[in-house]
Amino acid sequence: MKRLLIGLSLAGVFLAACHTARTQSEPQVIVVPPDEMSRQPALGPSTAGSPPAAPTPATVKPSATTVSLPPPAAAPANKHSYNSCNVDGPYIAITFDDGPHAVHTPTLLDMLKQRGLKATFYVVGQCAAEYPDIMKRIVAEGHEIGNHSWSHVALNSVGADSLRKQMENTNAAIKESTGLRPATMRPPYGATSARLNKLFDEEYGMKVILWSVDPLDWKNRNAATVSSRIIQNTHPGAIILAHDIHATTVAAMPEVFDTLTARGYKFVTVSELLALDRPAQLVKKETPAPTPAN
Ligand SMILES: [Zn+2]
Q1: Along the 294 residues of the chain, how does pLDDT read in single tens digits?
Q2: Counting CB atoms within 10 angstroms of each CB, which of 54, 169, 187, 199 has the fewest?
Q3: Model pTM?
Q4: Distance from Cα 241 to the centre of ligand 1, integer Å
């Protein structure tokens, strides 16, 4: 009982902290070199005849503006985490973490809608619970929602009980507002491990999504800096990290969206990008690389 009370009081603190904590800068991000996490060694063969359950791809909704995608190629079955994808074509996924935010997320949704672009939102559970209407709008407009923990903790530093609550309470908040179960998750600060990646994938049915483009938008609150870093570093198959809790990040987006679109990039959701992932050696060398930076 005492434990339950402690848990409840902590939940109360976290809930009350949604406005304040989420508007603070992202603390030190653990640097994960591109594709480092996806090169983890195989964690042992699965038991013959009982492969891990496939995640429910419930968050991808068809939409009139969805980009027409080529047929998917099979990704390695034991790949639990991704920094980027190997794709035949200029497909990219932009992701927004730490929201929803009462003001900035709707502003961003307007920008995406205007251009018919798709994004993925890694929501913090306590904020998802606070803004169910924004959650509904995100899904209604064809974007994907993923799990970013309940209270933005480093998941590799909490106990098993706390880890389970962080994951399950967030999935419950997402289900409550949208009726969907997320197919992917992003660990706060990129703090994870090979063991956790396997657990998130096999126990919760969520692939672990890191990133290959990081504009450090939590640190440098300048729209021009954020947009130029994203534009300069984006590549086919990129997963772009950004935060929709910062006004400067959202202000950077029109330039990012319009420049990358003009260069031929196609914005897809993370699950759509994962469906296009294939072994690197099969990706055509003549991938249509968009025009280099001016
Ligand atoms: Zn975060």
Answers
A1: 444 444 444 444 444 446 544 444 444 344 443 333 333 333 333 333 333 343 343 333 334 455 666 555 555 567 999 999 999 999 999 999 999 999 999 999 999 999 999 999 999 999 999 999 999 999 999 999 999 999 999 999 999 999 999 999 999 999 999 999 999 999 999 999 999 999 999 999 999 999 999 999 999 999 999 999 999 999 999 999 999 999 999 999 999 999 999 999 999 999 999 999 998 878 875 555 555 544
A2: 54
A3: 0.77
A4: 9
- Check if the beta carbon of residue 185 is closer than 8 Å to that of residue 209: yes
What are the residue ranges spanned by the domains of the chain? 81-282
Question: CATH assignment of 81-282?
Answer: 3.20.20.370
Count other C-beta atoms under 10 Å from residue 7's C-beta. Answer: 13
Whether the ω angle into residue 100 lies within 30 degrees of 0, i.e. cis, is yes
Distances (CA, A) of 222 to 22, 45, 217, 260: 18, 47, 8, 19
Give residue 97 CA to ligand 1 midpoint distance, Å: 5
**Centroid of ligand 1 to alpha carbon of 119 (angstroms):** 16
d(CA 91, CA 277): 10
Query: What is the Å distance from ligand 1's center to 188 Cα?
Result: 5
Spatial contact of 189 and 151, defined as CB atoms under 8 Å apart: no
Report residue 35 as tokens: 């594709």
Catalytically annotated residues: 97, 243
Give me the torsion for CA of 221, 227, 229, 233, rounded to 10°.
150
Distance from residue 294's CA to the centre of ligand 1 (Å): 31
Q: How far is the CA of 26 from the centre of ligand 1 (A)?
A: 6
Contacts of 214 (CB under 8 A, 6+ apart): 29, 241
Distance CA 188, CA 170 (A): 13
